[in-house]
User: What shape does this take?
Amino acid sequence: MADNLVERDTPVLAMGGGVIGDLAGFVASTYMRGVPLVQVPTTLLAQVDSSIGGKTAVDHGHIKNSIGTFYQPRLVVADIDTLQGLSRSEVSNGLAEIIKSAMINNASLFGFLEKNMDALRSHDVFLMEEMVARTAAIKAGIVARDEKDTGLRNTLNFGHTIGHAIESASHFKIRHGQAVAMGMVAAARIAVQMEKFNKKDLVRLKKLIQRAGLPVDIPPLDIPLMIKKMEHDKKIVDGRTRFILPSAIGKVFMADDVSLQMVLQAVESRDEED
Ligand SMILES: NC(=O)c1ccc[n+]([C@@H]2O[C@H](COP(=O)([O-])OP(=O)(O)OC[C@H]3O[C@@H](n4cnc5c(N)ncnc54)[C@H](O)[C@@H]3O)[C@@H](O)[C@H]2O)c1
Ligand SMILES: [Zn+2]
Assistant: This one.
């Protein structure tokens, strides 16, 4: 950018998936202490999640997202037409975050997904547009109330505490959306054990995740390594891992009192609820 004499009022256009968005956003936020940023997300995940909220980051050393900034784009342009060329697994990857958003905040979006999942996976343009708009609005609403991630924004981590541990323990062979899907089921199983979440709703969640082309049961992984990763996760409060758990479809709560025993039981459980 310096070689090309880019000045402070020249905007950076981040067109691509979440990787491009995070990298271009980081560059825009640091070059000359910040130039205007426009996000043009082209994956489902980027349209509903990474382009919104102003978190930018790059990986450093062995740590994901270890260097980054909070930097809001001036504009986010999500064009549904760009999604036509995405593979089925890329669509599933984005659907994991969409199911997450419905679970934490919006039972009616959950119902919409149950009704339309098959059409959505076949790229029905009108339904896709509605889904992206609704999910983007959920994330924008949460971020607007807690931009710097000190409370409410934590709820967006539903499925991610165990999900990140799965990703790491698989040495990133398991993709983020798949890991989050399994993490959501494990979190829901913990909530059922605590008698805070209904078993019938756990079955509904599992069915929707499976119809999205995503896994529900965690494959045999190095469990001690997973637990270690979870303990090193940044969502630790006073030495205990904080979990976001569902209390209903569309509602979550924060739990700091989840025992290791409960986590192990949830991680090791296999499809036995239905
Ligand atoms: N900043 C945030 O708040 C936030 C939130 C969630 C995820 N992320 C980050 O986002 C990244 C994941 O994003 P992603 O899932 O978009 O992955 P990605 O950027 O790697 O894109 C996935 C693949 O799709 C390709 N692609 C992009 N647009 C396409 C299109 N229109 N048609 C066909 N192929 C296309 C890409 O080249 C890539 O191969 C991770 O690095 C994650 O850390 C950031
Ligand atoms: Zn995620």
About this structure: The pocket of zinc ion (ligand 2) is lined by residues 97, 160, 176, 180 (CB under 6 Å). The beta strands are 12-16, 37-41, 55-60, 63-70, 75-76, 236-237, 240-241, 243-248, 251-255.
